[in-house]
Amino acid sequence: MSVMEISHRAPEIEFLLADTVERTRRLLGLGDDAEVLLLQGGGSLQFCLIPMNFAAAGDPVDYVDTGYWAQKSIREARALGRDVALAASSADQDYAYVPDAASIRPRPSARYCHLISNNTVEGTQFHQLPDTGVPLIADMSSDLMSAPFDPDSWAMAYAHTQKNIGIAGVTLVVLRRSWLDAIPDGLPAMLDYRTHSAHHSNFHTPPTFSVYVTWLMLDWLDREIGGLTAMGAINRQKAGTLYDYLDSTAFYQCPVQPASRSLMNVVFTLPSADLLAEFLAAADQAGLAGLAGHRSIGGCRASLFNGVTQESVDHLVGFLDAFAGQHQPGRPGLLSTQPDSPSQPVNA
Ligand code: PMP
Fold it and tell me: Please, are residues 143 and 125 in contact by the beta-carbon 8 Å criterion?
């Protein structure tokens, strides 16, 4: 029998869960004061669990508004009757940047300050963290395990695994153990972090196959890649290749302010809607899948998650340059090489 068939109470699965936590601890450099939980419900369920577990109705909770996913997190806290305030927002420029760390000022009474470390839709990322005195919580769904992690900066960090750490089904939650003591009684068991902590993430049937893939991915990150510093260098190089090319041409535009650019999601636009449609169709034909921007903002987005290789990025740049060369009168492609067939899709 495979991991998909055996009971979640079998020793093999108990081992799988414990070792996935252990691998997470090692890669993130977590100390004994950190708890690691493997949950279900994706990033979206965390948007509800955080206000439920760490604030009572009417309590102040502060959020940094950086766009699509930030707004979803804010909406849930409001729906639960928490007193939500914005510690900072980049709505004034259509979320083309993330607020400067120094400008993030949560209320001192706030139970926590929540931010999205990498804004998957807008293509922005925090490269500097605020130091506010209020416990920081980060949705790292699109950048946890893509670069080194500083455990001291966060009261809690969480990420669904489907981008950088495996496939859909698992959400990794890292939180300070002392925070578990502050959770109010009376929450439904499934929605109380203490339940999952007490049962070592095996309170109910866990998504065993997804955990297994994450377990493999964590091993790959550790032993084949060489840890998060090495992964971070690879990801910086991939994103640098693409941004450098985009900056070298007037054909493609990058709407995100340089200091806020995401290393994971590179967002760019073309000169017209017609060219955009033609570009996406040609990219698809060439085997470059998933380059359309998020449906809420359009344009293009190349997602460079951990599974995407430098070779794929080089291939994408070759394709971008060939397309620009064909559609800008009098301008040959900047690069001499033309793309051949891709080794893998650019979007993971
Ligand atoms: N947070 C971020 C930053 C995301 O990018 C996403 C989805 N892509 C979510 C939360 C929602 O995650 P899920 O679909 O796992 O609920």
Answer: yes
- Distance between CA atoms of 286 and 302, rounded to whole angstroms? 15
Ligand 1 centre to CA of 21 (Å) is 21
Over the stretch 27-67, which tens digit does the pLDDT of each residue have?
999 999 999 999 999 999 999 999 999 999 999 999 999 99
Residue 184 Cα, ligand 1 centroid: separation in angstroms?
A: 26
- From ligand 1's centre to the CA of 269, what distance in Å? 23
d(CA 330, CA 246): 19
Angstrom CA distances, 327 to 271, 320, 323, stand at 10, 11, 6
Among residues 188, 173, 70, 72, which one has the least CA distance to residue 118? 70
Whole-structure pTM over 0.85, yes or no? yes
Q: For 166, how many CA atoms within 13 A lie in the half-sphere containing its CB?
A: 26
DSSP secondary structure of 243-279:
HHHHHH-SSSB--S-GGGB-SSEEEEB-SSHHHHHHH
DSSP one-letter code for 335: S
Express each pLDDT in 126-175 by its tens digit. Answer: 999 999 999 999 999 999 999 999 999 999 999 999 999 999 999 999 99
* H helix intervals, the chain: 11-28, 42-54, 68-79, 177-180, 193-198, 208-219, 228-248, 273-285, 310-327
Going by alpha carbons, the residue nearest to atom 8 of ligand 1 is 120
Query: CA-to-CA distance for 68 and 123, rounded, in angstroms?
Result: 11
For the CA of 41, the nearest atom of ligand 1: 16
